[in-house]
Design a protein that fits this description.
The chain is of the alpha+beta class. The protein contains 13 helices and 12 strands. A hairpin with a 2-residue loop joins strand 4 and strand 5. Helix 8 runs antiparallel to helix 13.
Length: about 425
């Protein structure tokens, strides 16, 4: 896989001096999941912890974390050297204003847009990468973080680090990918179900297919449209990897996002109070007020924007159980009421090339945005972006480990799709 001793992306003297500031640990102490430490303020100049994060370092829990900026961008805290400066230099190189390398220009289309760096006036030495939030245009974003490659450690890793990574998921070399976390919208109950890293590590060769299919099941049916669009996105990324021999990626991930509400629900007119009363009467034979108890909508408003874990049973099948509601009226009511409630929840603005966010007190000029990105072509309800570049190195050959993982991931998705078609 390239050189035995990969080179580190070159950094100029000025940039190296800037990276020296990162030796200090940005923050200290530990906290329970979702809390902030005493040394870390709950808000940094209007920024808040990213609510829909499914994997990686979490602000207030780890020493580094991810925030949401008021302008809708995502702030990823730069990790200590050498990982942090390496990832920062990667983004700077790919999104450089004077970039003319066709390989890198094409790669821009598969990454979140980069808007430079940001730091709080109160802590100017703590740098954050300012990135596009690819979930911002979705109403009910279903999100999955999948680590790609046959190994999750780079050639510079110590023997202890290598053994640690192998112990975490011994099947990484054979399977080629690992689900780090996911957040799935249950359209039947109008809630989100979340799964952490332990879920993915618990999947074996004979369960990886059903484990991955769970991400595309909304409680009512398998979202075959989202699977097809995801396959198309992965094929584009695979084409890029086949066409380049400049970079090799270790411990990098793919971020999957699709709209949890089907387009038919998004375009449906609001449900009136009279319609609600009539529908409830029709459901009296199926438990009457059980619909409201089952949905628990009065207390679910925050779940639309937060990564809330909800226990859910899973029998491994992809079939839909409508019980005594064959017309799907119960689901219609749940989703319609959820839509009305969600209308009052402010979402970050959608970012585009014509309305890119200001960098505030950015440490550099805005990055260059890619052309022909996924948001402007193909299915508008699906995104697949490459993320996490703390272990990217120059190479003189194709990244066979990443390609292996991509191909196997594509194979599993195609098997899920074919199985669903045969059973329909």
């Amino acid at each position: 896989m390239g050189r035995t001793e990969p080179k580190v992306l070159n950094m100029s003297g000025a940039k190296a001096m800037e990276s020296d500031k990162l030796d200090r640990n940005p923050g200290s102490g530990t906290a329970e999941d979702g809390a902030t430490t005493k040394d870390q303020p709950a808000h940094l100049n209007g920024c808040v912890p990213l609510s829909h994060q499914v994997a990686g370092h979490k602000f207030g829990v780890d020493k580094v974390g991810i925030l949401q900026h008021p302008d809708g961008t995502v702030l990823k805290q730069v990790q200590p050297p050498p990982r942090g400066p390496r990832e920062m230099q990667f983004y700077r190189t790919v999104f450089a204003e004077d970039c003319s390398d066709p390989c890198l220009l094409d790669l821009q289309n598969h990454l979140p847009k980069y808007y430079g760096t940001w730091s709080s006036p109160d802590s100017p030495t703590e740098l954050y990468l300012k990135l596009e939030d690819v979930t911002s245009r979705f109403n009910r974003p279903c999100i999955m973080d999948v680590k790609l490659g046959q190994r999750s450690y780079d050639p510079f890793a110590s023997q202890e680090k290598r053994e640690q990574q192998i112990r975490k998921y011994p099947l990484m070399e054979e399977i080629g990918f690992l689900i780090l976390g996911m957040r799935v919208y249950d359209a039947r109950r109008a809630t989100f179900d979340s799964y952490n890293q332990h879920y993915g590590r618990g999947l074996a060769k004979d369960t990886i297919r059903d484990g991955l299919a769970r991400f595309f099941h909304n409680g009512l049916c398998l979202r075959m449209d989202a699977i097809r669009a995801s396959i198309s996105r992965l094929q584009q990324i695979l084409h890029w990897f086949h066409s380049q021999n400049q970079l090799v990626f270790y411990a990098s991930s793919l971020l999957f996002v699709y709209e949890g509400l089907p387009s038919s629900f998004l375009s449906r007119p609001p449900v009136t109070e009279a319609m609600m009363k009539t529908a409830n009467l029709l459901l009296v034979g199926d438990g009457g007020e059980a619909i409201q108890e089952e949905a628990g909508l009065e207390n679910k408003k925050e779940e639309f924007n937060n990564n809330t874990a909800v226990a859910v049973s899973w029998d491994g099948s992809l079939s839909t159980n409508h019980r005594t509601d064959p017309c799907g009226l119960r689901a219609l009511l749940h989703i319609s009421r959820a839509e009305e409630m969600a209308a009052s929840v402010d979402r970050p603005p959608v970012l585009n090339d014509q309305n890119r966010p200001a960098n505030g007190n950015s440490n550099e000029e805005e990055g260059r945005s890619g052309t022909g990105g996924q948001g402007s072509a193909g299915d508008p309800e699906v995104e697949v972006r490459m993320i996490d570049f703390a272990h990217v190195f120059p190479s003189d050959s194709q990244d066979q480990g990443y390609i292996y993982g991509l191909k196997h991931l594509l194979t599993v998705l195609e098997q899920i799709l074919c199985g669903a078609v045969q059973n329909s």
